[in-house]
Amino acid sequence: MGVLYHQVADRLQALILDGVYRDGDRLPGVRVLSKQFGVSISTVLQAHQTLEGRGYLQARARSGYFVRLPTVDAPEPVMHKHRNRPVPVSAREMTLELCADEQKRMVPLATAIPHPDYLPLRQIQQCTLWAARRGLETLDYAFPGKESFRRQIAQRMASVGVAVPPDDVLVTNGAQEAIILGLRAVTQPGDIVAIESPSFPGILQALEVVGLRAMEIPTHPSEGFSLEGLQLALEQWPLRACVVVTNHSNPMGARMPDERKKQLVSMLDAAGVPLIEDDIYGDLYHTGERPRPAKAFDRTGNVIYCNSFSKTVSPGLRLGWMLPGRYMAGARQQKYFSNLATSSIPQLAVARFLEQGGYDRYLRSARQNYREATERMRAAVARSFPVGTAVSRPKGGFALWVQLPAGVSGTRVYQRAREENINVAPGLMFSISGKFESCIRLNGANPWSERIDQAIARLGALAHEEQSLSC
Fold first, then answer.
1. Does residue 344 sit in helix, strand or coil?
2. φ, ψ for residue 39 (rounded to 5)?
C-alpha cells in the first residue's frame, strides 16, 4: 500500500508540475481520483497527505485540497571556478559552536542530524536489548569488528557492486573516524589533499587532526566534484590523497554520474593518489535506484570506502565501517593504536536489524520523508527569500545549500538568526579560504511544522533586510 500511494502522489505531482492543475486550483474529489487511478479512497487520501507534506497541496476545512506552489522557483547555485593553492586547515570553532547551539532548543536548521522522529527508534531499542543479552559475546574487544556485523556489511556492499569478503571490512566509530584512519594510513603531516569546495566541515576537521593541507576543488551542484579542476591540481601539486562525497554531497547534495565516478577512480589510480570516498548519504537517495559508489569501479584497491549508520539508523550509535582496499594494513594499525576497537553491542544490534530486513523496510519511509522535507523547505525558501536566491536540488540526503544574492552576507544572516534562536550553518564553515560568504546551509531532516515554516520565513526576511542594507 505504501508504494501505491506514493505512486499516486508522484502522478498527481507530475500533473501539477505540468500545469494541468495550477496554483490555487482545487483537486477533484477523492472518489473521482479513486476511479481515475483505480485505487481505494484511503490510498488517495494518503497520496494527498504525502503531497501536502511535499508542499504541493494545502488542505482547507470542508473544502478539499488545493494546489499550493511557490510564487517563484529558485535556480540552482552556480559552481565557482577559482584557482587555489594548498592551505593548512585551521581550528573549526564555529562547528563546535553550532553543535552546542543545537542543544539549546534553537530551531535546528544548522547541523546535518536527522530528527528523532525519522529514526527507527523502536526497532533499534529491541535489537539493542537482544544484543545486550548476548553475554560474553558483548564483553570482548571486537577488533577488527564483530564477524556478524562485517558479514552483513559485505552483503550490502555486494548489492551496490562491491564484492568484498567480511575480512576486508574494518569497523569504526562512525564515518569520521574512518576518514581519519584512511588519511593517516596514506599521508604524513604537511601533505596536500584534494577536497570538494564547498566541503563537509567534518572532512576539514579530519584534515586538521592529521595536520594536512587542503587543495579545494570546485564542485558542481548537480554533477559534483570537478574532474577538470582535479586534473589541474594533479598537474601542479604533489597530491597525496583525495577525499570526495560521491553521492549526495554535503552541503550541495550533488551526485556524481557513474561515468564521472569511473573517470575519478581511473585518474587517481593512474596518478598513484588514493581516493577516500565518503558514501554516508548513499542509502538516502530520493527516487530511483541506489547509486553506486566509486568503489564499485575500483579494480586495484586504491579506493578507501567510508560509511556509517549515523545519518540513517542513529547518530548516537557511532557505528561506521571502511573498506581500506590495499591500505588495510595501515588502517588496521591506526585503528588499533587509536582505540583498540569499536563497541560490541551496537555492532550486534545493527547486525540483527540488517539480518531481519528491518533496515531496508525503514529506508523506504526515510527516503520519502527526506525527499518531502527538502522539497517543502526548498519551496519555502523560494517563497520567502529575495529574488536572485539560488537553492540546491539534492537527489538524496537532506542538506540544502542556499546561495544568497550578491552583496548579501550569509554570515550576517547566521548571526542575526542566532540572536532569534534560529540555527543555520554559514557558508564560511564549508571552506578554508574564506569562500561562500554569501551562502548558508539548511538542514532539511525535520518534520515540517509551524515553527520550521516561521523560521524559514524569518530567515527570508533577514536576507531581505541585509540586501536593503547592502544597496
1. helix
2. -130, 175
- The predicted-structure confidence for 91-109, as pLDDT tens digits, reads as follows 456 566 666 655 567 899 9
Query: What cell numbers appear for 147 in the block?
Result: 564477524
Q: Which three cell numbers stand for residue 337?
A: 593504536
Fold category of 2-67 in CATH: Arc Repressor Mutant, subunit A (1.10.10)
Chain center to CA of 144? 27
Q: Where are the domains of the chain?
A: 2-67, 87-115+365-470, 118-359
Nearest-angstrom CA–CA distance, 436 and 431: 7
- Among residues 318, 251, 243, 294, the alpha carbon closest in space to that of 273 is found at 243
Query: What are the angstrom distances between the C-alpha of 255 and each of 197, 222, 247, 276?
Result: 14, 6, 4, 16
Angle formed at CA 112 by CA 110 and CA 115, multiple of 5 degrees: 95
CA dihedral 292, 390, 365, 114 (to 10 degrees): 90
3-state helix, strand, coil in the chain (%, to 5): 50, 15, 35
Low-confidence ranges of the chain (pLDDT < 70): 1-2, 18, 69-73, 80-83, 90-104, 471
CA–CA separation, 256 and 261 (whole Å): 6
Task: Give the pTM.
Answer: 0.85
The fold adopted by the segment(s) 87-115+365-470 is Aspartate Aminotransferase, domain 1 (3.90.1150)
CA distance 213 to 204: 10
The string of pLDDT tens digits covering residues 138-197 is 888 889 999 999 999 999 999 999 999 999 999 999 999 999 999 999 999 999 999 999
- The CATH code of the domain at 118-359 is 3.40.640.10
